[in-house]
Amino acid sequence: MGKNLSGISALFTDGAILQRNMPVKIFGISKIDGALDIKIVTEEEKIVYSNKVTMYEGKRWMAVLPAMPAGGPYEIQAGDFTAKDVYFGDVFVVSGGDNMALKVRDTLELYAKEVHGKNDGLLRYFSVKKACKFVEEDSIVEEGSWVSAQNERGLDFSAVAYFFAEKLRSNDRSVPVGIIDAAAEGTFLHSFVSRRHLTFPDKELIFDKGTVKPKYTFATPEERYFTRYKQIVNFITRKGYLEALKKADEQNRKDWNDALEKNKDNVIEEGIIRVPGLFLEGPLDGFVGGAYLSYKFTLSKENLECAKNAENSLGYDPGDKNDCMLSLGIVNDEDIVYINGTCIGSCNHRFKRRIYKFSSELLHEGENEIKIDLRVHWKNGGFVPDKNYRLIIGSVDETDIFADKSWLSENYYLFSMGYANFSRNGAEGMEERAEENDKGGEFFSVDLSGLWNYTVYHKCQSMEYGLDEFNEPSGVFNAMIRPLAGLSIRAVVFYGGENDLIIPDGFEYTFESIVRDFRDIFTNSKLPFIYVQLADFANCNVDSTEKRWSQIQQKQVLCQKIPFTKMVAAADLGEYNDMLTAKKKPVGLRVAAAIEDFSRTMKNNQ
Questions:
Q1: How far apart are CA 534 and CA 554, in angstroms?
Q2: Is residue 219 domain-shared with residue 80, that is, in the same domain?
Q3: In-domain check, residue 309
């Protein structure tokens, strides 16, 4: 590659996909003063473009390449730097929150067979480093690399992005597709908005006598909404403010976890609970702290021999010998999982599916034990119902036992929500159906739903909510969106707003600001902006969730009035118990259809 004294953005390195059929801007922040020669060179070393720009140390430079048709490979030469295997095709920036950030590997319960064996060297993906910044400054993407959807590397792509890109590629194999992922988990809409578009002109503060809280006089709801954010941003950017909050938050978390570690050998309470189910009633109702849960099961020699069938499975690594999979649905809030005393993984994200792969060498003939160190940060801990709780030995490519939920009793939701109302007849029916699923031939599965032993070792107060900079206004925009400034792309695809459930008021104003900011960044006032409606969700942890969620969905419908936007309807793809539904393939297919529809509309208007 060379020393890269030009400081060219990582977006233009080996394997890059550049936008076809329009002038393409490439840029960087120079490390020296001087002139920079830029060339596009074919495989046959034919120069198809050559130009020169002036650079100044520490300053951003930009060069405009001519419009090129789909194809490649080319080399992009910028002084001492050379990017190889560069193609021209269609480039999409995908952004948003947890739903866009959800990876293909998190959807394998539904799509393992479809993803397995797929290799496409011209479907490529660039992940922008997840970061926040609260200072507005000129910047570029300095880290990262382009990855092709080959040899199962596509498992780490955004699932929505992968499926819509795959569909576009199947529609026209002559056009490479590049995905630039600028999504971040745990974000609100305002995380993606510039400070400029979060604020309105100052309004006079009117104080009532005898009060300390100011009253505001505003002409419009928009002004009321954005002035609140202006105050937040002013606090965040105050010197030392964020650092102090981070330090306090880290200390709170450390103290909370240290207390659990200190008391791990205690036995405060023992009993039996049913999995799955949330701790909304029964012996652990209101529980916060740490508890061990254990489940014992018996394996035969024949069961263990199914492990050899995993060699051709998706994600199988002969080095790790991960020929078994443990699916623990969704756990509230944090779990550390052991098989016969050996830790196989952990997760502290309360909305993510727990899928742990491990080696059959940890299992043995006879009795085995799964043990979970469950840590409940806030009330309503437990195991989300109507998810998959199974251990599988052998071909984890077999997804039939995951996709088929017909064995769930109609009353399963009711009895899994509370132990006192559990129907024994329903349990027997469920167990009979589970036995049928166990007869898979290539794999052996153990149904983990049922009675588990628990031992509470520590009780405490809820973990204090601390600072999460990804929640704060403008942080993601400054760190992840602003560095893309000037990039030539075909469209933006946005899927987010999940966390705005907390305060749905003003959703439409913030969303309009996101569209405005993205179009400013990519210098295209008519840039197609495709966004995905949130799928239906009814959080059984929190009252009124469904009402506020539907408010956001309705506001998303209203946002279609913004010119050159399209909403992809997804309400019908929801799961009552899962904010991050794994049904990302139909979302991707609908996004692809919206992209193609945009293309037809724009051609007709020319």
A1: 10
A2: no
A3: yes
